[in-house]
Amino acid sequence: MEEPIKTGIMLRFRKNLDGLTTSIPLPNINPDIISILSVIVTIVAVWNYQNFWWLFSFIILACLLDWLDGLIAKRYHRTSAKGYLVDMVCDRLSEGILFWFFFTPWFYFFLVNIILSIISWKTKKHFTLALRWLFLIFILLKHFNLI
After folding, report:
1. Which residue among 35, 63, 84, 125 has the highest number of C-beta atoms inside a 10 angstrom radius?
2. Where does the sequence pass through the membrane (predicted)?
3. Residue 66 φ then ψ, to 5°
C-alpha cells in the first residue's frame, strides 16, 4: 500500500518550504525515530504547561521535528506507507497528549483530526488539520491578551 499524498494548497506550500532546505545537511537516520522524538518532546512540553514560554518552545520543537521526519524521509528516499502510518500515529498521539491539558475545544478538534487521518489512510489523500500550529497561534494571542 502506498502512503497518502498531499494535495492542493498544502502540496504547493510544502514543496516551496521543503525546497528552501535543499542545502541544509540532514542526518541519514530512520525518520520514525524523529516522529517518536516529537511525541517525547510533547510530553516534556506539557510537563510544565503553566510556564508559557516552556510550553510554546517545546511545541514549536515538536512541530519542527514533525517537519524534519518528512524531510529526512524524502531526502533519503525512505517514504513508505509504514512510515506514513508511524508519522500519523505519532502526530495524533502528540496532539492527544497536548490537548488533554487544554480540553475545550482542542480535544474535539483532535477527535476530528483522528477521523481525517482515517479518511487520509483510506483515500490515500492527506487530509488533516495543522492543530499544533493553530494551537501555538492561539496561545500566543492569548498570552498577549489579543483574544
Report:
1. 35
2. 29-47, 53-72, 97-121, 127-144
3. -65, -40
